[in-house]
Amino acid sequence: MCGVIGILAQTDVFPDIYQGLLAIQHRGQDSAGVITYDGSFHIKKGNGLVRDIFTAENARRLTGKIGIGHTRYPTIGGGGGEDAQPFLVNSPYGIMMAHNGNVTNYEKLKKLLFTKYRRLLNSTNDVEAILNVFAQELNDQHIKTLKPSHIFKAVEGVFAKVKGSYSVIAYIAEQGMVAFRDPYGIKPLVYGRKEGSPEPSFAVASESVCLKSLNYKNIQAVEAGQVLFIDKNRKVHSRILARRPHSPCLFEWVYFARPDSTLDGVNVYKCRKNLGKLLAEDIKKRRLKIDVVVPVPDSARDAAIEIARKLDLKYSEALVKNRYIGRTFIMPAEKARRSSVRQKLNPIEEEFQDKNVLLVDDSIVRGTTSRAIIKMVRECGAKKVYFASYSPPLRYPCVYGIDMQTRQDFVARKRTSKEIAASIGADEIIYQSLDSLKKAVRMGNKNLTHFCGACFDGNYPTGDITRETLKKIEKQRKDDHENQLELNI
C-alpha cells in the first residue's frame, strides 16, 4: 500500500507535492520520491520519511509546473533506494510514473519485456513493469502527433497485459498527465481541479484529504477501468476502457485511509462510526460485564466511541500514543513491530486497575501488537481484558498491495475465536462479521455492490489467483524479507 500524488499547475509544484506527501505519509514509511518537469526531469528519491528525504536544496532543484510524488511501503521488491518511486523512461517522449497497488504477474512481464521488446527492468519495483508496458504500447502505435485515442489504446494494452491492482499517475513530457485505475478499481484514486489564471490546475492522488489540504475542488473518484488524460492545453479527456465488477479494497476503510478522506463516495470517519455501531450490537448479545471501553489509537477511536455510546459504557483513551513512532502494521520487519509497541503506547494505569476492559482495535493481523497491548493492560491490574476487532478475522494472503502475503502472517489462520483469544492473551475476542463490514461501507454509497475482501474470505476478485500464484508470491516475499534482514545485520 502506497500513496501517490500528481500535480499539473501554474507555478512550481514541489511545495504542494511535498505537502501532499505529508498528508499521505501514513500510506508508506519505507521510502519516498518526487520527479518534476520543466523541460527536463528532476529527480529526488530516498529511503525514510518525507521530512527526512527532502531538503531546501532539493526544493530549489526540483523545479517545474508538473510533478509526481510517492510514499512507499514495499510489497513487490525490497527496501533499497533503487526501488523508490516514481520511475522514468526516456522513450517515447519521456514518461514518469508512480502507482499504488501490486502487480501479480510481475515476473512474467519482466521476462516478456526483455525477451520480446529488449526492455530491461533495473529494479524489483512493479511500477517499472507498468511504465515499460505503457511506453511500449505507445511506441507500437508509431505516433506522429499524440492524441487522446493513443493514450486510451495504450492503457487498453496495459489492462490486457498487467494483472493485479494498480492506481497509476503518469506524465508524458510536453504532452500531458495520465491517470488510470485497474479494471476492478481495487486501490483508490481521486482527482480535483483548482481554478486559476490563465488556466486551471489539476491534481490526482490516492486520497481526497491530500487534495483538500491543497484547496482543490470538485474532487471525484477515478472509476474502475477509467483513464484520464489532461492534455497540454489543460483539456480533460476521459474514458472507461474496461467494465468489471468495481471491487474496492475493504481494508482501506478499516485501516489504511485517513478518517478525513472520502473513498469512492464513502467517508472513512462515518464508515468507522457505523462499524462501531454494528459491532456494539454483537457485543451486547454476549452480556459481558464491561467497565470501560478503550481504543487502540488512532484508527480505532471512532468505532470505540460509538461502541461505548451504544452500550452506555465509560469511554477512556487510556492508551496514550507517542506520535513520533510510525504505524507498526506497515513496519517491514517483525522485530521492529515488537520493539515499537512499548515505545508507541503508554498506559494510564489508573484507568485499567481492577476493571473489566474492552479494548477496541481496527484489526488483528499477526497478533504481535495485540498480544503486547493486552499484556501491558493486565500488568496495570485489569481484572478481565476483552478484545474487539471492528473488522473480520484476517486469514488469507493479500496479493493486491498490503503486506500480508504469507499464511504465517495471520494469527486467525485455522484458529477458532477461542483459540485466537488464547493466543493473544484475551479473555474473549469479538470480531465484526464480513457482512457487517460491507454494510457499513454501503451506508455511505449504496451503489457499491462488490468489494475486495480477499484477506477475509479468500475470494480474489481478479479471478486469476491460483494456489500456485500464492505459493510464488509467498516465496518471493520470504526471499525479500531474508534479503532485508541481511541488509540490516
Describe what you observe in this structure.
Helix content is 33%, strand content 23%. The chain is α+β, with helices and mostly antiparallel strands. It folds into two domains: 3-244, Glutamine Phosphoribosylpyrophosphate, subunit 1, domain 1; 268-488, 3-Layer(aba) Sandwich (Rossmann fold), CATH 3.40.50.2020. A hairpin with a 2-residue loop joins strand 14 and strand 15 (266-267). Helix 9 packs across helix 10 (301-311), helix 9 (268-285) runs antiparallel to helix 14 and helix 11 packs parallel to helix 12 (368-379). The protein starts with a strand and ends with a helix. The mean pLDDT is 92.
Q: Please identify the structural class as seen in this structure.
A: alpha+beta
Percent range of helical residues: 25-40%
Count the DSSP helices.
16
Distance between the termini: 26 Å
For the record, the count of structural domains works out to 2
CATH superfamily of the largest domain: Aminohydrolase, N-terminal nucleophile (Ntn) domain
Number of strands: 22
**Integer average pLDDT:** 92
What is the CATH architecture term of the largest domain?
4-Layer Sandwich
Hey, roughly how much beta strand do the residues contain?
A: 15-25%
Strand order across the biggest sheet? Answer: 3-2-4-1-10-9-11
| Biggest sheet descriptor | 7 strands, antiparallel
* CATH topology category name of the largest domain: Glutamine Phosphoribosylpyrophosphate, subunit 1, domain 1
The parts where pLDDT drops under 50 for at least 5 residues are none
Quaternary form: single chain
**Which word captures the global form?**
globular
